[in-house]
Amino acid sequence: MFKILKKRKLRKQLKEYLHGARHARHMRADIAAPKDLEALSEAEAVVLEIRNTGQGDVDKAVERLSAAANKVYPSSNTSGVRENVEVIIVALAAAMAIRAFFFQPFKIPTGSMQPTLNGITTEVKHGGDLTDRQPIKFVKWLLTGASYKEFKAKVSGAMGDRFYGDRDQIVVDVGGVPHGFPSYMREELFRMRDAGVFKSYYKKGEVMVSAKVIAGDHILVNKMKYNFMHPERGDISVFNTKSIEHEQVRADTFYIKRMVGLPGEKIQIQKGRIVADGKIINEPAMFEKIATDPSYHGGHGNAGKLLDPKDSIQLAEDEYLMCGDNTAPNMSLDGRFFGGVPREDFQGPAFFVYWPFREHWGLVR
Predict the structure, then answer these.
(1) Same domain, 226 and 260
(2) What domain count does the chain have?
(3) Tell me: the pLDDT tens digits for 328-362?
(4) For residue 78, what is the DSSP state?
(5) Is residue 77 a part of any domain in this protein?
(6) Residues 16-48: pLDDT tens digits?
(7) Domain assignment of residue 239, yes or no
(8) Contacts by 194-198, CB closer than 8 A, 24 or more apart
(9) How many Cα atoms are found within 13 Å in the side-chain-facing hemisphere of 8?
(10) Residues 6 or more apart from 294 whose CB is under 8 A from it?
């Protein structure tokens, strides 16, 4: 009985050695020297023979197998670190595959989809409170996306009377030195300027603007859906702007808008209503809201394509018209200005707001 148990234990140990040898080959077969791989195979054969027959010099065979495996896949004191790195690499590869083919995260930077989805919003706040100090500040940001920010003067000097910049930042000079503010502060900055809030002179380090900044909604986009189903009117979808030719639209970014017009349709705006091929569009429910919005029309100044009820946008057989839910012309640079978007430029529909944990968290509606 003792002899049988001893033999069983030996077989189990040899099985583990063989498993380690196979792992070494799988990990390094593409880069190891052919002679080392051959030596490993020969050593495996010897150990396998001993495991099957129970005859032979076990210690010598195991020593030979270990040496051959170590030659193919060298072990060291850093083997644990190496294995952890391999796990991390595999996890990253899996995450990248999910991002590329299934679900991809995006964030809403502007207010063009309000009230359905929020972009970055700001509220002027004069001085922080206890909740704006660590560690409560971090917890509040983690849960709600809200944080208190101060923008201070870099130098002492007179404040300029002109705001300039681009779509990424607003700039004003203090003491002749440019001071940049993020673009999401645009409305608050101009509101403060028009209200005469800014001082004519600032000392270095003095707070010019303080505000509560709330992060825009972070969403997940279903990249698989449009591979099996046609986009539908009312979808809130993310698309690449690479095919859009408009001076205010960068060709290297992504927009998120609601799908208003479908391929082949002629879209018009008549008496504040969206009209597709002569029929008023009321479904889904958001279109009824759009239709009753007195600010909704075909553009701003002479920039829009649907300024007159007789104006129309004729969509090609592979194009969709995308418009923002915040339909005021100065709040949504959308299809009323740049026309249709090709089918191939769509990433997919938004389906879930995963952060922050505010009023829009959950399924996109």
Answers:
(1) yes
(2) 3
(3) 655 678 898 999 999 999 999 999 999 999 999 99
(4) T
(5) no
(6) 878 878 877 777 777 778 888 888 888 888 888
(7) yes
(8) 198/159
(9) 5
(10) 272
